[in-house]
Design goal:
zinc (chains A, B, C, D); homotetramer; 15% strand; alpha+beta
Chain lengths: 228, 228, 228, 228
């Protein structure tokens, strides 16, 4: 559990390092699938005052197991994603500027090039706004359920990111660190896609065969990028 | 009074830290409501030469109570805002780049998402330019009066920011520190709103129920964000 | 002369500090009107290797008086500006990103707000491209002559900046330091004007009376900004 | 060979210094034409863990001569460029944000000003996407062949940069360091060209005589910029 808190602390501290958060607008969690416990950033605590001990341990029923602080207010979203996506081990939420601009615009991010295709297979979706009933009810839980529903018949490992309309992005990965990595990729991809549309308003997504090539160069049985 | 000067000095030093000022283009004040005195940055003094002792103490009649320097030339605006908004304790003025771009464009900033709604309830208004008479007269005082007039029948605590057309933003809060916090929020929100309109020129404001949810998640009797 | 070299060295080092230069793409000079000598950055020398001793001393006939290096290739432009503008003491040339984007676009920068009006009175002009004859001849000298001609019947002290079409900006001031200050103002103003036009494509310049107010609040007999 | 590895290591470390890479998204190589060996960054190794010893030595048949790591997955592209461009000594590939945005937009970068003309003669081309057959085959090698084919009847020394559609830029130079320098120029030029088109959608390329002037001021027998 100390190890989990340390890992989640370190992953959280990467958010300001990569310029993905202003103030406390972001959080990382990581789960230990053997116990079903996950650690998450406390709510509204400044990054420069954060310590590993401040991380809050939760279970997948939303009960606090350990920690002096309240967990992030987005905790119920994390719970639903861990329940729906059995192969993931870490989740990130931020209000990073470019990804949030796309979320506010209500548009998914088309795959315009290999930077995107290297990590995410196809368009990064923007899920609809919650209804008034969903918002007035268990808002954060419903956010998780909506994302889970969207990916019900889609490959959440191939597209480890989503935009929530009028809100911002969630990303995930095999652990908190990889989820942060995907949050950085998403922000970079969101920035270049917006600029690319300004440079050429008629731009089309990259050809499917190029997307396939780059994605599978890094993923799956025939991957040959890196040192494996 | 020493404490007040120190608090105002520290709040002023946050402006360059958060990238909100170039040269001397900004100022923070904070008021002690028990005495009616407020401390404010001196006019045109470089941030890297500023000390707590340089802060100027003023009263709400615009008289200098203490200090070797002239107060910020925007002091009469601060005076009018303190008189009109009894619940505030701090005021910030900057020429921060994105907020000023909206002010120059003469447009209020629509609420496109939860980052905005978390701190500011509804559109951030852009008040009209002053008339020739108002400009040629007591310009800075009239700037304050115009803002006060705009908020006469509106909730200045729920919308702690305003854009002055062809000029730039003012923000406020319970003290100087919170006013700076709101200035950072405003700049971030202004940036994302501009990008969001480029990504989707037909974008509409976030649904009212989502704005309500996020605002009241952080404000009022039923708030549940953070550690309270 | 040592003092002049030191002042020019320090002013040059402000260019990378304020993010106005990439590599060696900029230069500052300052003149001693009593001798008619001016010091200028050597051509193509890296900023992080520069020392005060490297500055080159020139006279207004373009003769090198002292220095082991060649002066900036833009030296003949500086000469013409010093000859045409008797009240200036320093000149800056950069390829700073936003100002150069306006220069490439071939447009002057309208005065959209008080940030601009505080330092520069009215539109910052973009002078025409040189003709083939002017380019093939004494190109750098002709650049200076063109700027001088533009300002022949205009107030070069009230508008201490110009854009050269398809090239970049020159700014000036009472000394090298003030010329750098104006280069920073220009870049900030150029950035906000571009963003402002994106936010509101129908935007109009700030009302004349507001431009007057801010400019004369800082300049001339009735100025009241700052500590004088 | 140690010297080569050191030079390539240092050139690679300039990429994060100049903000051209996120994570491991870039690589520099440099060739020793006397042996035909070149050194290149290993694939997928973090920049902050890189040492000179980690550089991989390759020959122009694509055989690894020395090194514990796999070379960059883009190595076959480098091989083809070294074979096609006998006068170059260094190559850079990045996914730098502005250049990649143009590549994704599928547009070459017009020469809008002297910043561009100082280093690159005319439009920076964007070569077509590879066909499905070229992608499914020897993708990285075919990328190099396509670039080589484009420059078959063009001057690759006068235009030391290319954009690969839906992918990103390659630049080259007399060694790795100059290739990095050109990558920085390209990014700056790409940024200003995009902004310039936003400021003036009808903008035209700089007059040919101005492009000639600036290019030949720095290149060829009559160059007079700098200290030579």
């Amino acid at each position: 559990m100390e190890e989990l808190k340390k890992a989640v602390y370190e992953a959280n501290m990467l958010l300001p390092k990569y310029g993905l958060v202003t103030f406390t607008w972001g959080n990382v969690s990581q789960i230990d699938r053997s116990t079903g416990y996950f650690a998450i950033k406390p709510s509204g605590v400044d990054y420069d005052k954060l310590t590993p001990e401040d991380m809050v341990i939760m279970d997948l029923n939303g009960n606090k197991i350990e920690g002096k602080y309240n967990p992030s207010s987005d905790t119920p979203t994390h719970v639903e994603l861990y329940k729906a996506f059995p192969n993931i081990g870490g989740i990130v939420h931020t209000h990073s500027s470019w990804a949030t601009s796309w979320a506010q615009a209500g548009r998914g991010i088309p795959c315009y090039g290999t930077t995107h295709a290297d990590y995410m297979y196809g368009e990064i979706p923007c899920v609809r706004c919650l209804t008034k009933e969903e918002i007035d009810g268990a808002y954060e839980k419903n956010t998780g359920l909506l994302i889970a529903e969207y990916f019900q018949d889609r490959d959440y490992e191939a597209v480890p990111a989503v935009l929530c309309k009028n809100h911002g992005p969630f990303t995930w990965g095999k652990d908190g660190h990889e989820a942060v990595h995907n949050a950085v990729v998403l922000e970079e991809v969101a920035k270049m896609a917006a600029r690319c549309e300004t440079i050429n308003p008629q731009v089309q997504p990259a050809p499917q065969e190029l997307q396939d090539k780059h994605y599978y160069r890094k993923h799956g049985a025939n991957a040959y990028y890196g040192q494996k």
